[in-house]
Amino acid sequence: MKRTFLTAFALLSLLNTAVKADEIPNPTNDTTAVRHLNLSEVKINASRVSAKMKDLPQKVEVITARRIESTPANDIGELLKKSTGLDIIQYPGIKSAVGMRGFSPSTSNKYNVILVNGKPAGTENIATLNMANVERVEILKGPFSSLYGSDAMAGVINIITKKSDGEIGGNISFAYGSFETTDVIANVGGDLSEKFSFDFAYSRHQQNKDYKIGDNNFTYTSKLEKSIISEDTYGERMVNTKFTKTNYNLRLGYEINDDWTLNLNTEYFLADDVETPGSFWHVNGMDRKDLERYRVGFDLTGVINQHHLSFAPYYSKEDNDYFELNSEEKYYNSSNSVLKVYGFQAQDKIVIDKHTLVIGLDSKTNKYENLRWEADGAMDAPYNPDNYDRNYGAFVQMNMKLLNDALNISLGGRYDYIKFQIEANELISAKKSDESYSTFNPNLGLKYKIVKNLSVHSSFGTAFLAPSAYQVAGSYSGYYNYEGNSELDPEKSRTVDFGFTYDNFKKGIKFDVTYFDTHHDDMIVSEWKDQDNNIKTYNNANESDMNGLEIEAAYDFGALSDYNYSLRLYANYTHLFDTKMKLEKDPTEYDLRYVREKSGNFGVEFDNLKGFYTRLNARYSGHRYEDNWYTWYSVRPTVTDGVLKHPDFMTFDYSANYTIKDKYTLGLSIANLLDENYTEKDGYNMPGRAVTMKFNYKF
């Protein structure tokens, strides 16, 4: 394997030196060649005021198209974990969770808002979001309920898709790699006429063989750490991990006149017979599932004098079917869950000189439907009753530039009214009922340019997480009898951060250090209401405090030669100092579960700006505390504590590609270069070394 890697690298390097100078323009005379290197001028759509990255007081990260192309990843979850300092948990079987700033990753995607082009993504699973038509990804860290309502306690992730114009063009690529993995990706877009434009993207990813777990250790040194990973997993196959997934994306644009445009965006995702191992020991069963999601939305945008108006209705439906094995070892449809998300966004952005004021209205409904069956096909009681929440929000956001543009001020607030309702269900004795509440969340941000290229920034904001409808309203029966709590408050947080930024593209230096402090209150827990009658309810019981440091640094040696090339060293690191939780009526502080205290990426990338690009990236994830579930099953008797200190790990990825005459690209990527045996969630060992070769044709 090492010989294969060195040979491939040598071939790509040889091709690089063979490029003739007269084939490609000198990048110093073509500013578009280095435009992707300078992110400070990028407008951040998720800010809702479309402010440039350099003008926002909040901490913002951007994953560029170049980084997306060079990252060995086949979904947004993998891209985030290999490009940012976010805390990501990936499971076999197309499932991922994201956490940031001390908020634990959750497969229900609590505490983060996931957007596509500024609108709800329509899924709680970021692994179902593909990258075939993605232009960039914006990551806003901190509380943003003042812009997006519920869930935006840790931050916002906004996926920006491609929007082509001009002559029709595109690309098609084929890839083959380890575990008999194949990829087909096609993109085409451009102007159909003076009025109409379009973008179409298709991708199909198929893993035909169960993946092999890593066989080495770069990080683990103690016998305890190796026993936690489990010595019987090294170099073994993770059985029941094959899958196939397909994505379609379509955009149709119509230019009504010089001031008004209309865009239709649609997406369809399908993954049938996705195998899920449960864990290496299959204690949760060797099951499978079918995933299907479609999303459609319109964007009507226009300008009237100083008013930039937009109206964007949207609808999405995600359908998940889960299949278990019965006593005859035949799969049966055990449960079905459906998430429908629909609503609209309307706003008026008023531009006055260098100042921007945005006034907006949002309407969003999340509707959850649940079914469950017994092995013989008879209907069984679902885990939760059908329920929905309707969120109506009104917000104002203002960005001002003062003191000769040295001071940027961001100020705003949002009022939300939320109505909950659960539907009647005889199988769980649930009656139709509803509740409602309202909340207001402000934000304030300041960024001051001390001297040229050096700024100080600070922000403050509050955020909230709305409880589920069944936690607030009505009652139902399952393994326990549950009664909703009409007095239940939303979870709340308040965060303040402070930092310094030095950004000098001409000298190739970018550095930001940000300290943040968050208090998370009214955390919702289930607890006994009447243990004698097996009745549980929900209460606001716990609180937690998280603070830490975020460091982003990069230096580009290409600045020494006026960017005739780019040789960039970079690092992105998050270190949590304090992650403590307090329980109700208990003065003792506990370490937060499922939160990694350290996480980050660092590496080096080289781009000769003439067709050759290569990157070596390292991902580091620190330890975290988890419940030691597998002791209950006696599959790992060497670890007996009820709470497990899950060890840290480090993995490396390498990629290189070479483009000939701006049309043909040959690529090589090696994920988990050192074949590390590691887990992101205890018991779910991740793939070992995976080599992929790729060919792309641009037309």
Net shape: globular
**CATH architectural grouping:** Beta Barrel
The helix content is under 10%
Count of β-strands: 36
Protein model, in words:
It is a single chain. The protein has a 22-stranded antiparallel barrel. It has a five-stranded mixed beta sheet with strand order 3-8-9-6-7. It has a single domain, classed as Beta Barrel (Maltoporin, Chain A), CATH 2.40.170. The chain has 699 residues and is mostly beta strands.
Helix-strand blueprint:
Blueprint: H1 2-17, E1 43-44, E2 51-52, E3 59-63, H2 65-70, H3 76-81, E4 87-91, E5 95-99, E6 112-116, E7 119-120, E8 134-141, H4 145-148, E9 155-161, E10 169-177, E11 181-191, E12 196-207, H5 223-229, E13 243-255, E14 260-276, E15 287-304, E16 307-325, E17 331-352, E18 355-372, E19 387-402, E20 407-422, E21 433-451, E22 454-465, H6 469-472, E23 475-477, E24 481-483, E25 491-504, E26 509-530, E27 535-556, E28 566-582, E29 589-591, E30 598-607, E31 612-621, E32 624-627, E33 643-646, E34 649-660, E35 664-671, E36 690-698
Parallel strand pairs: 6-9, 24-27
Antiparallel strand pairs: 1-2, 3-8, 4-5, 6-7, 8-9, 10-11, 10-36, 11-12, 12-13, 13-14, 14-15, 15-16, 16-17, 17-18, 18-19, 19-20, 20-21, 21-22, 22-25, 23-24, 25-26, 26-27, 27-28, 28-29, 28-30, 30-31, 31-34, 32-33, 34-35, 35-36
